[in-house]
Amino acid sequence: MIIKVFRSYLKRIFDGLFKKKANIKLGLYGSPNAGKSTLANRITKDWLGQEMSVVSNIPHETRDINLKEGVEIRKGGKKLTFNLVDTPGIATKIDYEDFLKFKLNSKEAKQRAKEATKGVIESIKWLDNMDCVLFVLDSTANPYSQINITLIGNLAARNIPVLIAANKTDLKKSNIKKIEAAFPQYKVIGISAERGDNIEELYDALFKVLK
Amino acid sequence: MPHQCVKCATFYPDGSEEILKGCNKCGGRFFFYVKQKHIEEAKDVTVNLSEEEKVQLEEEVMEIIGEKQDEDYPVVLDFETIRVMKPGKYELDLIELFKGKPLVYRLGEGKYVIDIISTLQSNDKNIRDGHKYAEDSDEEIESEEKGN
C-alpha cells in the first residue's frame, strides 16, 4: 500500500515536471447561449482559419465536448499553444418546451433536452482536466445566477486560472460593470465574439493568465 | 395573550419564564402584549390570498425594489443529482454534480435510478487523486463554522 502511494506520488511529480506546454487545455465554460461556441469559432478562425463548432440561437446547440488541438496564438513575438475545449452550456433546468419555440417538434425537443442534460454532466466531468477556463458570460444577463456562482466557486476550489469574457457587448443591454462587481477577483474583458470587438485584448489577457 | 420581544420580535406564550428572565435570543426584557385575535387576523391576511393575488403581490414588490423578476429560481434537490420531472424536463443539482456525487436520477415519488458505472468511476478517481473536493470543502466549512 505504501509502495503504491509512493509510486503514485513520484508519477505525479514526474508528470508535473515534464508536462508539455502544448498540452494546456483551455476550456470555454458558461451558461447556454452565452456565446461559447461563437467565441471558440472566433479564436480558431483567427488562428487556424477554420471554425470548430456549430452555432445557433436555440439553447444547448453544443451538446458534446468539442476539442481543437494545437491552437497557436502569437502576440509581440510571443507564442502560446493550447487545446481549445468548447463545452456544452451548464444549466440547472432543461425543459424541452423551451425548444418548441424554435420550431422543433416535440420528439426533437425531448431528444435535445436529453442530450443537453448529458452535455451538462460531460462539461462538469471535464472541468478537472482544464488548465485554464475562459468563463463566457452574457453581459446582458444577470450575473448572480446559481449557475455562475456555482461554477466560479468550483473553479476557485480547484485553483484553475479563470478569465471572464463578458460577451455580447454589442447589445444595448450589455452591462460589464455589473459583471465586474459580481466577480471582482477576476479579470473581466468585455467582448463581442460575433463582431470580434475587443478580441485582441482578450488574447493579451490570455497570455497573462496562461504564462 | 402572547408576548413579543420588543428587540427581536420573538413570540412567547403567556406565562413563559422568558418574560421574567429575559428573551432567549437577545436578552431583552421588554415585551409587547399582543392579543391572540390580532395575530390570527394578521395570519388570515396572507393565508387567505389567492394564488393569483400572491403572484401579483410579488410582482408589485419586485417592481418597487426595481429588480426584474427572476424566474430562474435556484434548484435544490434531495439526495438525487438529477430530477426527471417528465420526459424532456430535467432539473440538475450542480453543486452535488461538481462535488462528483454519483448520478442518481429521480424518476418520481420513490423511483430512483443510480448510475453505478459513473459512481464507481468517480470513487476510483477520487482515490487515485488522493483527495476529494467535496469532502475537503465540507470539512473546511465545518471547521470555519466551529471557529466562529
What this model shows, in words?
The complex is a heterodimer of chains A (211) and B (148). Chain A contains 7 helices and 7 strands; from the N terminus they run H-E-H-E-E-E-H-H-E-H-E-H-E-H. Chain A is an alpha/beta fold and 211 residues long. Chain A has one domain (20-210): Rossmann fold (3-Layer(aba) Sandwich), CATH 3.40.50.300. Chain A has a 6-stranded mixed beta sheet, sandwiched between helices. The radius of gyration of chain A is 18 Å and the shape is globular. Chain B is α+β, with helices and mostly antiparallel strands. Chain B folds into 2 domains: 3-65, no CATH class; 82-147, no CATH class. The longest helix of chain B is centred in the middle third of the chain and has 15 residues, at 51-65. The chains are: A alpha/beta (211), B alpha+beta (148). Chains A and B meet through strand 4, helix 4 and helix 5 of A and strand 5, helix 4 and helix 6 of B. Strand 4 (93-95) of chain A pairs antiparallel with strand 5 of chain B, so a sheet runs across the interface.
Secondary structure layout:
The complex is a heterodimer of chains A (211) and B (148).
Chain A: H1 2-17, E1 25-29, H2 36-48, E2 66-75, E3 78-86, E4 93-95, H3 96-100, H4 106-126, E5 132-138, H5 146-157, E6 162-167, H6 176-182, E7 188-190, H7 199-210
Parallel strand pairs in A: 1-3, 1-5, 5-6, 6-7
Antiparallel strand pairs in A: 2-3
Chain B: E1 3-5, E2 11-12, H1 18-21, E3 31-33, H2 36-47, H3 51-65, E4 82-86, E5 89-92, H4 94-98, E6 104-108, E7 111-114, H5 116-129, H6 133-147
Parallel strand pairs in B: 4-6
Antiparallel strand pairs in B: 1-2, 1-3, 4-5, 6-7
The pair of chains with the biggest contact is: A-B, 30 and 24 residues
Q: Could you tell me how far the N terminus lies from the C terminus of chain B, measured between alpha carbons in angstroms?
A: 37 Å
- Which residues of chain B sit in consecutive blocks of at least 5 with pLDDT less than 50? 130-148
Instruction: Output the radius of gyration of chain B.
Output: 24 Å
As for the CATH topology of chain A, it is Rossmann fold
- Text of the CATH class of chain A: Alpha Beta
SS elements, strand count of chain B: 7
Domain count of chain A: the total is: 1
- In percent, how helical is the residue content of chain B? 40-55%
Structural class of chain A: alpha/beta
* Class derived from helix and strand content of chain B: alpha+beta
- Helical percent range of chain A? 40-55%
Question: Count the strands of chain A?
Answer: 7
Q: How large, in whole angstroms, is the Cα Rg of chain A? A: 18 Å
> What is the chain-wise order of helices and strands of chain A?
HEHEEEHHEHEHEH
Report the biggest beta sheet of chain B as strand number plus sense, adding barrel if it closes: 4 strands, mixed
Strand order across the largest sheet of chain A? 2-3-1-5-6-7
The best one-word shape of chain B is elongated
SSE string of chain B, helix = H, strand = E? EEHEHHEEHEEHH
